[in-house]
Specification:
With 356 residues, the protein is of the alpha+beta class. 38% of the residues lie in helices and 27% in strands.
């Protein structure tokens, strides 16, 4: 899959800009990638594509490149690159699911053959018919098992050493393995921060703010890191602690501007506190109109609603929402693991008139 991202980054992206535009791209890349200025300046397009991928990983490099093209207002290139990225990811997911399904079927066939052999032998020696030992797996169950097998294949083998910036309390969520307690966290290296979805609440005692930890066997998605039950999380010795710059900490904790959100690729994970100016309630969803000094946007919340009644002027704290495109309109949308909280606006104090 890395080769696909490398190819699209070069052929769909960097090859379609002029030398002057390439200089502008490199200038903005300094803030998005951990690459020395001197190395960037002398790199040609092919070398630059390699440097971007080495710095951020294949999928993340393409996502960041899309963001840079959007900042430069090269929207045709950004759109073409985003479409190529979606095609590659869709193809990859389909292939991994097929591999997982095939493995499950092969394992099931092998097990059935083993059972058949055993029952035949049992019939020869005991003189009675064999009973059904292993019933066929239901299609839905088989699909879930296949997807889990595919996920195990894609676990990252390298280790990620990070400082924990924030960790939320565990909450119950519907996952592929049924209902289980998960939690969200924010971690950072010396150059960037990550949102983390932790699918095992037992890791909560490792995700302590300001603690440096090492994560292995994790899933690296385009816009977040996923820690699964197969992951390993351990403390790091004090001599190897990560020192996160103040600007990275600030960036990780601040609410992004709405004007910025509208330029981000679909699927980008967003956390933040937003002021509500409109509420539209429907049977199975609520649409919040949010705003700041730079614009307005809609937030689509699916499923169960907050117990706290939200009114205009209140704020909502969003965690693990994603940028979505609804018929050409960019919005924030909740997912299975999203959570939100209503923050009531402070009521103005009423003056008490003194009675003379």
């Amino acid at each position: 899959m890395e080769s696909d991202f490398r190819e699209m980054l070069l052929l769909t992206g960097l090859d379609h800009i002029t030398e002057e535009e390439l200089k502008r791209f490199k200038y903005l890349a300094l803030t998005e990638f951990n690459i020395p200025r001197k190395t960037l300046n002398i790199a040609d397009r092919t070398e630059l594509a390699d440097q971007l991928i080495q710095s951020a990983g294949a999928a993340s490099a393409v996502a960041k490149a899309i963001s840079i093209f959007q900042k430069l207002n090269y929207m045709d290139i950004a759109k073409a690159l985003e479409e190529k990225k979606k095609e590659a990811e869709s193809k990859y997911v389909t292939n991994t699911k097929k591999r997982g399904t095939q493995k499950v079927e092969n394992r099931s066939q092998a097990k059935n053959c083993s059972v058949a052999s055993a029952t035949c032998s049992d019939k020869d020696f005991k003189g009675h018919s064999a009973t059904e030992v292993c019933p066929q797996v239901k299609p839905q169950k088989k699909q879930m098992v296949a997807e889990q097998e595919a996920i195990r294949e894609d676990l990252q083998q390298d280790s990620l050493v990070v400082m924990v910036l924030k960790a939320m309390n565990p909450f119950e969520c519907e996952t592929q393995e049924g209902k289980q307690k998960i939690f969200h966290a924010t971690v950072a290296t010396e150059t960037e921060f990550f949102f983390v979805k932790v699918l095992n609440a037992q890791f909560k005692d490792k995700f302590i703010p300001k603690r440096t930890i090492q994560i292995s066997n994790y899933l690296r998605h385009s816009y977040f890191v996923e820690v699964t039950s197969s992951s390993v999380v351990v403390d790091v010795e004090s001599s190897h602690k990560v020192c996160v710059p103040n600007n990275i900490m600030k960036k990780a904790g601040e609410t992004p501007k709405i004007s910025k959100l509208k330029t981000l690729p679909c699927g980008t994970i967003v956390n933040g506190l937003f002021k509500v100016q409109k509420i539209t309630e429907q049977k199975d969803r609520v649409i919040y109109g949010i705003h700041d000094k730079r614009g307005t946007m809609e937030v689509l919340v699916l499923g169960n609603q907050s117990k706290t009644k939200c009114e205009e002027g209140d704020k909502i704290r969003l965690t693990f929402f994603e940028v979505s495109n609804n018929r050409g309109k960019i919005q924030l949308k909740s997912g299975p693991c999203s959570i939100y909280k209503v923050i009531k606006a402070a009521k103005p104090k009423t003056k008490v008139k003194s009675v003379e």
